[in-house]
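During the no-cost extension, the postdoctoral fellow (Dr. R.K.) reprocessed legacy sequence entries with the updated structure-token encoder. One reprocessed record is reproduced below for audit purposes.
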Amino acid sequence: MYLPLNELDGSARVWVYNTKEFVSPEVIRVILERTADFIKKWTAHQNDLYGGCGFAHFRHLIIAVDETKAAASGCSIDSCVHFLQDLGKELDIDFFDRLNYTFVDSTDQPYKISHHDLDEAYQQGDINDQTLFVDPTVKTLDEFHEQFIKPLEHSFQYRFISSVPAS
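Re-encoded structure tokens follow.
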């Protein structure tokens, strides 16, 4: 059963899928429509899953399941992954990018940075400890609302910084 994200319990389990490139609003609408259609039919052990979806910063598809109603199973999660793989092939979008990160400026404008460029950008002063990064590792809707955007120094990406800024 499909529900808007804001109608799901805060403990709803969340998966964040990162697209390799920024996606246009028109394509986001298609992705959300198709994902909502998938969620309407999504089941685990013949139980309807109560889920919703959203998109953030033109790169992040958010899918959530309220497991207080029915828990997602390994097979149901696999079916979602297969759905996204098929949709990705159809739309020529990679939903499984883990080597590019998103950070935002004070106006919430998103920027993409490669994992391989992160340390150099930090060294050059292009980003710093307070630069706000998207954390796609959030596990629940409450975490999504409270911790999806956080300063680099509190993000998982910070562990990839090996240098201190040049003086």
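The helical segments are 25-41, 74-91, 115-124, 141-147. The chain has a mean pLDDT of 94. The remaining legacy entries will be reprocessed before the final report is submitted.
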